[in-house]
Amino acid sequence: MDDPSTVPHWYLFDYGMVISTAPEPEDWEALQEAAGLPLEDRNSSYWLHRHGFDSGALTPQDYWTRVLGREITDGLTSRLEALDACQWSHLNAETLDVLDDLHLRGARLALLSNMPAGMAEQYTRSSPWAGYFDQLFFSGHLGLAKPDPQLFRDVIQQLGTTPAHVTFVDDVQENLDAATALGIQTVLHSPGINLSAELGL
Predict the structure, then answer these.
(1) Contact 54/114 with Cβ under 8 angstroms?
(2) Fewer beta carbons within 10 angstroms: which end of the chain, N or C?
(3) Domain containing 128: what range?
């Protein structure tokens, strides 16, 4: 049995609404103008098909065809992809400060995000926040999406640790519940949170 003192502890962060902020109204306006449809509402086709897109079951062409309800060109698909990536690229300065603090302390940091593969690859290449993390896990690459318990099990295994040695920060209670059921420590990221205090920093 591993000595508990030698098992590494990891801080596992979600991306959307934790590292990023919500899209601005003008972001949704630009995306909706390109799509010709209202998309922001949680009951819209954008959200209806998002889980399949995030988990890699749908290609960008498949996803946006379903969102728009018609066949679309590669050019329009590329434009919608660019606008979608742009609207989720606004960053939460307070979370970045916490990541910087943890990084300076030598903490082990990983990211687990429900994110389609194309967006994940773009952010990994171009976003400074990616450099804080020792490991990056994206649903679009793994073929599973939160809150699937198997996704958490696979991530824990790849981190080489145990559930009790992981603190998971996410904004969705359903995702936290799935993690808690496996023995992972969790923190709900909600508006106005003092994340440093919640993490005991």
Answers:
(1) yes
(2) N
(3) 4-21+91-198
* Terminal CA-CA length for the chain: 29
Sign of CA dihedral 183, 184, 189, 193: positive
* One domain, residues 180 and 142: yes
Amino acid sitting at position 106:
G
pLDDT at 111 over 80: yes
133-144 pLDDT per residue, tens: 999 999 999 999
Residue finishing a domain among 87, 116, 132: 87
| Segment 67-105, tens digit of pLDDT | 999 999 999 999 999 999 999 999 999 999 999 999 999
Question: Distance of alpha carbon 47 from its chain centroid, rounded?
Answer: 15
Token look-up 């010709």 returns 36
Q: Structure tokens of 81?
A: 């992809």
| Sign of the dihedral defined by the CA atoms of residues 34, 35, 37, 42, in that order | negative
Phi, psi of 33 (to 5 degrees): -65, -40
| Mean pLDDT, rounded, of the chain | 96
Rounded alpha-carbon distances, angstroms, from residue 154 to 58, 137, 142, 181:
21, 10, 9, 15
Q: Report whether pLDDT(52) > 90.
A: yes
